[in-house]
Design goal:
3 helices; Rieske Iron-sulfur Protein; 7-stranded antiparallel β-sheet; alpha+beta; 4-stranded antiparallel β-sheet
Amino acid sequence: MTVIRLIALLTLLVMSGCHSVETDRIPAAPVYLPFNSSGEWTVYGTPGAVSWRLFVKDERLPVNYAYTAVSMTGFGGILLCGDVFGAPIAFDAACPVECRRDVRVEIDSETLTARCPVCGSEYDTFSNFGYPMAGKAASLGYALKRYYVGAGHSGEYMVVTRL
């Protein structure tokens, strides 16, 4: 009987040590956000470390960004960030706990975390790939949905697309 208990205890310890993070709570939606020149990237992108910008085509955010008919900003908008090294990284701005288009995480400029105004969950967007840090998202293991950011294939300077 003690051998069975020992095996059960070891199995429980091994399984509890495996902590996974879910990144697919946000529904799939088209993503295509091109930056056609280095000047456009400097004005509207995230050319430096710990910088950010929110893109929501339906709301014309940011103001004066040249959206086209093929521009798409995902489910809840695109949160484009420059990580701690200045490398661009992008997330869907919708909170994965709330899973609604109109509930978007916001960057707290003092703590440099993305925070949901509804559930209070906090995410690390500048050094930990949008992983949850606090709140319901941390207890459930819900991370922000990531998008690809890189050089464009059709002559764009930079482009954000789905992974």
